[in-house]
């Protein structure tokens, strides 16, 4: 059975237990889009962290693509610089 003692002496963070880490890993796994298809399979912490990093990378790529698309659309819109600035401010709220 895994040790449930505090990791304060190992990590320098008082009060973090293995149970707390497992709970946080479960919450992180639940945020992943593939979680619903794999909910019956318990993932290791390594798998959860790797999947989370991959998901965040994909999200960054999508944001970059959408930003480029928005820039092209705004350039073609015929709006003046002040109107474009207003649209950009509204989108970054």
From TrEMBL:
GO MF terms listed in the record are: protein dimerization activity
What SUPFAM superfamilies does its record include? HLH, helix-loop-helix DNA-binding domain (SSF47459)
Q: Which residues form the BHLH domain?
A: 5-59
One GO biological process term is: regulation of DNA-templated transcription
Keywords assigned by UniProt?
Growth regulation, Transcription, Transcription regulation
Name the PROSITE patterns for this protein. Answer: BHLH
- A Pfam family: bHLH_ILI
Signal peptide start-end: none
Against Gene3D superfamilies, the record matches this protein to:
Helix-loop-helix DNA-binding domain (4.10.280.10)
InterPro entries, per this entry? bHLH_dom, HLH_DNA-bd_sf, PRE
Q: Record's family? A: Belongs to the bHLH protein family.
Descriptive protein name: BHLH domain-containing protein
Q: Which organism is it from?
A: Musa balbisiana (Banana)
Question: Organism classification, top ranks?
Answer: Eukaryota, Viridiplantae, Streptophyta, Embryophyta, Tracheophyta
